[in-house]
Every structure is written in C-alpha cells, then in structure tokens.
Amino acid sequence: xYLKHFGLIESPFGLTPDPDFVYLDAQHQAxxxxxxxxxxxxxxxVKVTGEVGTGKTLLCRRxxxxxxxxxxxxxxxxxxxxxxxxxxxxxxxxxxRPDVHDGEHTLYQLIESELLQLAARGQRVVVCxxxxxxxxxxxxxxxxxxxxxxxxxRKLIQIALFGQTxxxxxxxTPALRSLASRIAFGAQLQGxxxxxxxxxxxxxxxxxxxRGHPVFSMAAASLLWRAxxxxxxxxxxxxxxxxxxxxxxxEHEVGVGDALAVWRERWRLLGGPVHIGAAQLGALQGERQ
Length: 289
What we know:
The chain has 13 helices and five strands.
C-alpha cells in the first residue's frame, strides 16, 4: 500500500464512517446545529435525507455525540425490523431486557415505564434511526405511536430519522401523512461545494498523518469534485485510487492525469462515457494551487 510512501499512519479515504475523520462543511454544520435546537425545543420528530454517501450516518453519530449530558440516546440501525422487532431493539438500547416472546403491547408498556422513570429524573430520550428509508411503513407507524408518549409538559421521546431521499417519497404517501405532519425540521444533504471539497481532501490527508504540501493539485481536485459531485463516499473511493496511481509512479502529488484516469474507469464500470474536451482539459491542467 501507499501509506509509507506518503508518510501516513492510516488510510485517509476509507469507506467506513470514522468519527476521527469527520469534516463538517457548512451545510452539515448548519444541519447539526438546527437538529440540536429542534430537539432542545422539544420537537417530536426531525429528519435528514440525502443521496448515498452524503454523510448522513456521520451526521447522525455527530448528533449523538453532541447531545447534552441529560439526554439518553438510542441508536437503531437495522432497517428491516418489523414493529415488534423495532420496539424490542429500542428496549434493549434503553438497557431493558424484553422477553423474546413479548408482543407489541407489552413492549410499548415496558418502554413507556422506562421513559416515565427517566423523565422523573429529568432525563430526555432521543432515538436516532439510521437507514430509515428502508423501514417498513408499519414500523414507521410504530415510531409515530411512540411519539404520542408524553407528560403534561413535554414529549417522553424524540426521534431523529436519517435516510435516503426515498424517505421523503414515503412520507408523502397517505399512509404516513400523520407521521409527516409531526416532523418539525427536515434537511436534505447535498454534495460539497468545491472549496469545501478541497478542504475535505486536505483534512483527511492531515488526519491520516500527511504533513507536506497539498497532495491533490488544484486541477486534480477540480476533476475529482466533478466526478464525485462532491459526495464524500464517492470522493473517498476516487481519491484512494488516485493515491495508488501516484504511488505507482513514485510521485507524491496527484495530478489531473490520475484524476482523469480514475474518473474514466469509474464510468467504464458504471456503463457511461466521460467526455472531457481538449480545451476543458487544458484549462484544468493550467490551474494552479
């Protein structure tokens, strides 16, 4: 691998979400602050949607890490759970031990009892549901019913949904209109703008141990940004391949040729051509740091 060649202590562009590499651009930072404000205000439901690889899971984990000390958080990440399975998973996250044969009604009672005890101690409960777009409609409805649990002053449980854009489509269906009406805040994550994208590449290289000049030339970064649409997961895949090419050439800088090569290979595998005109390529090659 290229780690020693670049003086790195770990891979800078892994595909598994890693909190150590978190880079919050302006849109992620704004979404995080608004989520925290909405939850602090006592809203029952909030949601974040975005295409694959736009950083929803990292934002979810960042949100959980930023919650105040008096908040008990629960993380649900298995999207194929039926209502009973969802309630059982939540009960386990709250430290309870439900019987494997408990039905939905029993599980609701068990969870409600725990929520009331936590509320009596001045604690709030926030449930973060990852991959929420893949939940069956009946399970989403079970979450809505959970949000009905409240004291005279506030909700006993708050729920943050993180999912692909299909979740928005689901919430527009008549069957989920009651849940949709309860969502107080919604954000849709997009790809990063170019300036944030360049900082993202540099940030990940620095966290991984790089201490020299920027590895990705302006032209290479520009081409990678276009190829990935600024989506972090796609950018990680392409940047990793670029580092491998630079390493193979014995170079310590990723050039526009490396970026163009991985872009062409990506689209060859996906079944689409890449058209870069001579004038456009020349303009990219003429860009400077």
